Amino acid sequence: MSDEKRSMLGSSLPIPTYEEATSSRAPSDVGDNPHTEEEASRLLASSHGRYRQPTVETARSSLESSFLEEFGDSARPSRESLERVMVEMEILEPGQGGEGQQRRGGGGRLRMHISKRISSITDSLSAISIPHHWKINPLRWFSCIRIPDLPCLGEGFVPLYRVMGVIIGLVVVYALLASDSVTLNPPPGAGGTIEFDIDALKDFIRDSIDKDNIEHYLEYLSRFDHTAGTEGDFVLAKYVEGEFRSFGLESVGLDEYSVYLNFPKPNGRKLAIIDPPWEAALEEPKANDDRENTLVFHGYSKTGSATGPLIYANYGARADFDKLESQGFNLTGSIILVRYGGTQMDRALKVKAAEERGAAAVIEFSDPKTEGWDLPEGFVQRGSVSLMSFIVGDVLTPGAPSKPDYNRIPLEHNPGLVGIPSLPLSWDNARHLLQSLRGKGSKVEESWTGDTRGVEEWWTGSINDSPIMVELENDQVEEERHPIWNVLGYIRGSDDYTKRIVVGNHRDAWCFGASDPNSGTAVMLEVARLFGKVLEMGWRPQRSIIFANWDAEEYNLIGSTEYVEDNIDDLRLHGMAYINLDVAVSGKEFRAAGSPLIQQPLLNVLERIRSPSGNGTLRGDWGDKFLPGLGAGSDYVAFQDYAGVSSIDIGFAGDPFPYHSCYDTFEWMKNTGDPGFNHHLAIAQVLGVLIIELADTPVLPFNMIDYAHALGRYTDDLEEHAKEIMQAQSPGTKLLDFKDLRNAVESAEKRLKEFDEKHENWMDYLEAGLDTNGIIARQSRNARMSNFEEHLLDLSKGGGLPGREWFKHVVFAPEAWSGYDAGYFPGVRDALASKDWELAQKQVEKIAKVIDKASYKLLN
Q1: Phi and psi at residue 721, in whole multiples of 5°?
Q2: Contact in structure between 220 and 141 (CB atoms under 8 Å)
C-alpha cells in the first residue's frame, strides 16, 4: 500500500451496522472517508437486481447494531481487568498501569535486565520520568556529577575512589529503574523502546488468549452471508477495519482492487432430465429459518447452456476419462456427472478434463461415501472452478495488480478459466440422476461405486443406446471490474523495521462461513487485540508485522495475490515470512504445511502449547513429522510461489465438515465442530507465539539445514516418481539423469550447514548489546536466511514453470494436474505428466543451477 493511500485511509470512523452500510445516507453521516455510504452504494450498485443482496429481513434489521454493542462490551476487556492479569503474571507491578501513564517496558519478567543494557538505555531514551513529573536528561545528569577531593586519602587512592563513586551512582540508577520508582518514557516520535524478555512475552500472549472473545467474534462474522464483492462482504470489511483501529494497529485501511467476478442469476440455472421429465432442486435447504442461503453455483463457471446424454465419469480425473474412452465412449457433446474429491481433488480440473474430451457441461455432486460425512442429503458444496494451478489472482491481470493503469487480457480463451458450464449438486438430487442411468452403458467397477443408499447399482450411462438426455442452464452476471476489499493493519518494527512478517486470513465465504474462513478471522482478531495491548505497554517487535484480511480468496486467491503483485519488489526484498490461517478449525487434528525454513520455529512454538486433548503439548501430538510442502488452495500461494516469502499454513482439521455449504454456521461450530472452542484457543496460541518467534527474535530461528535435508528428500521422491512414470509409459526408455541435481543438493547441504555452524564475532555480544557494526552483521545474517527462499525463484527472462510462467519457485508449486497437492520440483513433474522426457531433463538441469546459485549466495 502506498503512503498516499495509507494517509487517505487513516481517519478513524464509526463502524457501520449492516443497515447503515447498505443504506443511502448522506456521506456526512459516516465521516471523512472515501468509502462513504454514497460511495459504497455506487461501488455495490452493480449487484443490485442481479446477484442477490444479502437478505435484510427481520433477522438483519436491528440485530447487527445491538449485537455490535453487546460484542463491544464483552469482547474487549477493560484496561483495569487486563492490568490485573498482567500483575498476576508478574508482567506489571501493582499500580503501574494508571490511566494516562505511558507503560513503556512494564515491570516484572518483561523488563530486560538493565545491567546488561546500560548502553542501549542511554542511547534509546532521551529522558527519565520520575514522580512529581521531574524530567532529567540522564546523560547530562551523569556529566554533572562532581566527586570532591578528600584530603585524608593519598593521591594514589583518588582513581579508585572516583571509580567507586561512579559504580555507586550506577547502582542507584539501576535500583530506581528496576523498582519502577522511575519510568522510562521516550518522547513521542523518538523511536525509543524498552526491550522485553521474549520468553515472558510469549507466555503472556499464550496465556491471555480469551476463547470467549473468539467465540463472540465468530458469532458476528458468520451472522450473515458474505460472498466476495457483496454487501455482506463490505460490511465485514468495515467491521474488521474498525476492530483493527480499536486494537491500536497502525495505518489501518481498506485496500481496494477491481477484479473479474461472476454471480448467479436467481432464475438463471436449471438442471433437468428431458424424458421422463424431472428437474433438480438446485438450491440448498435452509439451515436456519432466520437467514436466507446464498444461491448455489460455481464461481468462475462458464455462462451457457447445454443438452446432451448423461455420462457418469467417477471423480473426473484424466485417468477416468481414459478408461471411458478405452471402452469406446466418444464423450463429445455429453453432460458429465462426477463426484467431488477422490483421485482428482480440484473441482476445476474435473471440468477442464471433461472439456478436453469434448464434453458440453459438467455436474459435480457430493458423495457421502467419498467425503465421509453424515450431513443432510440436501447439502451442496459450492466452490470455484478457476484453474488456480495455472493462474491465481484476477485472471484478467496475471502478474499485475488489478488497478486502472494496468492492461487486461480477454475473458475468452483465458488460461485461468474453463470453457464449459458446470453446476454443483446435492447428493439427494444426484441420486436421482444415478438411478436413471441403471442399465445404461456399462456397470462400473467397485472403485467407481459411491454411496449405495438408494443407488444399488452404479452405471456409466450411454451415448447411443437410449441415452438419458439432460438439459443444463447456467446464466450468470459477469463483472469485469468489481470492487473487493483487503483490510490491512500494521505494527512498525523497532529495529529492522523494513523487514516484515505478514499474517493473513481471508474473509469472504460462499455462505455464512463459520469454519471456512471465519474461524481463522476470529482467531486473528483475538491475537491482533493482544498485540495491541502489548503495544500500549511500549513493546515493539524487532521486525514489522502486517495483519491482513484478504478478500475474494474463494474465487481464485484474488485479494492476497493482487496485494503481492502490487508490492512484489518490496516483498521479495523485505518479506521474511507469511503465516496463513484460512480454515483455522474444522477438526481436532493439528495440521501444518510450509517452507522447511519455518519447521524449526514451528517446533519451538508447539513445545509451548498444551494440546486440546489434554495429553501433553502440541509438539507431542506432532511427533517426528517433517513439515510438508505447500500446494495450492489458499492465500500462501502468491507469497511462497511468486514472491519467494517463506510461508506456513496452520490449523486443526481431520473431521468432515459442511465445506462450502450454508450448513457451515456458528451453531454447527458451537455444537459440533468445536464445542467449548478449545481448538480455537490452541490455534490462537500457536499463531500468537509464532508471530513473536518470527518477528521479535534478534536472529531469525530458521534452521538452514532443515532446508538442505528437505531438498534431499524431495530429490529422492522425484527420482522414484520419474522412474515409475517413464517405465510405465515407455518401457526401456533412458531414464532421467539426476547427477547435476544431486550434486547441487549435496553442495547446498554443505553450504547451509557451514552457514548454520559459522560463528561470527557479534554473536558473543548479542545479550550485552551490539554496536552499529554488530547490528548490521546480525541484520545481514537474517536477510541472507530469508533471501534464500527468494533465490529459489526462476526470475530469468521468460522464467517460471513451462506453460505456467506465473509460478516462479523451482521447488514448490501445485502440480498442473493435481490442483491442491504440493508438487516438489513441479517443472519436472509437469513435463513427466505430459510425457515430454526432453523437457523434464532440461528442468532437472535448470533446478540444479538455481539451487546451486542460491546456496552460494547464502555464504557469499
Answers
A1: -65, -45
A2: no
Q: Is 509 left (phi over 0), alpha (psi -120 to 50) or beta?
A: beta
What span, in angstroms and rounded, lies between the C-alpha atoms of 559 and 402?
10
Helices 231-247 and 519-536: crossing angle, nearest 10°?
20
Which one-letter amino acid corresponds to residue 405? D
Q: Please report which confidence band the pLDDT of residue 666 belongs to, taking 50, 70 and 90 as the band edges.
A: very high
Contacts 24+ apart (CB under 8 A), 275-279: 275/469, 278/432, 278/436
- Say how far apart CA 356 and CA 348 lie, in whole Å: 12
Q: What is the pLDDT of residues 416-463, one digit of tens each?
A: 999 999 999 999 999 999 999 999 999 999 999 999 988 999 999 999
Q: Burial letters for 141-169: b for 16+ Cβ neighbours within 10 Å, e otherwise?
A: eeeeeeeeeeeeeeeeeeeeeeeeeeeee
Domains of the chain: 3-75+207-260+481-695 (3.40.630.10), 79-206 (no CATH), 262-479 (3.50.30.30), 704-859 (1.20.930.40)
Phi and psi based region of residue 385 (left: phi greater than 0; alpha: psi -120 to 50; beta: remaining): alpha
Query: Residue 70 corresponds to which amino acid?
Result: E
Q: Residue 585: beta bridge partners?
A: 652
Whole-angstrom distance, CA of residue 437 vs CA of residue 446: 16
Can you read off the three cell numbers belonging to residue 694?
A: 518470527
831-851 pLDDT, tens per residue? 999 999 999 999 999 999 999
Confidence of residue 166 (pLDDT cuts 50, 70, 90): low
CA distance 153 to 459: 110
Do 14 and 30 meet the contact criterion of CB atoms below 8 Å apart? Answer: yes
Most confident stretch, 73-87, 132-146, 253-267: 253-267
Query: How confident is the model at residue 564, as a pLDDT?
Result: 98
Give the pairing type, strands 647-653 and 575-580: parallel
Own/partner pairs, 188-195, CB within 8 angstroms, 24+ separation: 190/126, 191/124, 191/494, 192/124, 192/125, 192/126, 193/104, 193/105, 193/124, 193/494, 193/538, 193/539, 193/540, 194/104, 194/105, 194/106, 194/111, 194/112, 194/121, 194/124, 194/538, 195/112, 195/117, 195/120
Q: Which of 21, 1, 68 is nearest to 250 (CA)?
A: 1
Residue 163 pLDDT:
60
Cα dist from 662 to 53, 550, 674, 828, whole Å: 16, 21, 17, 40
List 575's β-bridge partners, or say none.
500
Q: How far apart, in Å, are the Cα atoms of 676 and each of 212, 362, 585, 682, 687?
A: 9, 41, 12, 12, 19
> How long is the chain?
860
User: With a threshold of 0.85, does the pTM exceed it?
Assistant: no
What the block records as the C-alpha cell of 90 is: 508478574
Residue 128 one-letter amino acid: I
pLDDT for 762 equals: 92
Residue 477 pairs with which residues in a beta bridge?
263
- More reliable by pLDDT, 42 or 461: 461
| CB-neighbour burial class of residue 671 (10 A; exposed 0-12, middle 13-18, buried 19+) | exposed
C-beta neighbour count of 477 within 10 angstroms: 17
Give the whole-angstrom CA distance, residue 243 versus residue 656. 31
Cβ atoms 665, 288 nearer than 8 A: yes
DSSP lists the bridge partners of residue 610 as 617
Phi, psi at 549, each rounded to 5° = -115, 105
Task: State the DSSP code for 194.
Answer: P
Q: What is the mean pLDDT of the chain?
A: 83
Peptide bond before 483: cis, by omega within 30 degrees of 0?
Answer: no
Q: Taking a C-beta distance cutoff of 8 angstroms, is the pair 454, 438 a contact?
A: no
